[in-house]
Amino acid sequence: MEKKAAPIDRNDCVICIRGLEKSFGELDVLKGVDLDLYQGENLVVLGRSGTGKSVLIKIISGLLKPDKGAVNVLGQQVDKLSSKDLQQLRLKIGFSFQNSALYDSMTVKENLEFPLVRNSKHLSRKEKDHAIEEVLDGVGLLQAINQMPSELSGGQRKRIGIARTLIMRPQIMLYDEPTAGLDPITSIDINNLINEVQEKYSTSSIIITHDLTCAKSTGDRIMMLLDGRFERQGTFEEVFQTDDERVRTFYNYNFTT
Ligand SMILES: Nc1ncnc2c1ncn2[C@@H]1O[C@H](COP(=O)(O)OP(=O)(O)OP(=O)(O)O)[C@@H](O)[C@H]1O
């Protein structure tokens, strides 16, 4: 499916990062990262394994502290927040992890109810059921409501994982390798779902991947981490219009393996 132009508000920066540095001992992972995520935008972060993509996500979500630099999420300086305020902020961020992180002993319905029971105690039974059905319908899996995760395919589990995140109506979605471990056809389904989520819920998203098909079909803008910095950014075509050997190798590797 061709990526439709999304309504992006470039005056509204939901994540703003300036001069971010992070090292582990002798290992300098992020060496001065600047990033703006605009309201309504799908931003893809590309990079080889070990370039620091997950470290970046962990710093954005307050799980790791930066060594240097400013990380502002929805108007708040993440590393300066109390744990209570950080918890409140995290409710506005949806995390879609590689392994979908579903509870195997719970049905799909119970999995989706879990975040509501923890964070939306005021909702009635009827309101909870409505929210669950609405979000399952949104990811095209209403029929799976009473199934166990073990009865679902990898792609379906990924969808349920995304539904469980969406049920809290996050303003920001962070997708960590959304197509990892999925076959090419199922990957296309997930890419389409990421675009549908953007359209339907007006989310702003960071999509971390090294899958170039995913990058091309979901990204309004692509940023590529190279040696600890975003050295290339723009549309998919702009990022790869270069003689930089590191970028060429990354591109060729993706389409030949
Ligand atoms: N808590 C930590 N302590 C020490 N080193 C860490 C820690 N977290 C990450 N690293 C190191 O930082 C580097 C970047 O890791 P990161 O997980 O961000 O890579 P990545 O780009 O997400 O890779 P992949 O695509 O394989 O998931 C790696 O060398 C990793 O070993």
From TrEMBL:
It comes from the Bacteria. Pfam families: ABC_tran. The keyword Nucleotide-binding applies. The keyword Ligase does not apply. Keywords: ATP-binding, Nucleotide-binding, Transport. InterPro entries: AAA+_ATPase (IPR003593), ABC_transporter-like_ATP-bd (IPR003439), ABC_transporter-like_CS (IPR017871), P-loop_NTPase (IPR027417). Residues 15-252 form the ABC transporter domain. GO terms for molecular function: ATP binding; ATP hydrolysis activity. This is ABC transporter ATP-binding protein.
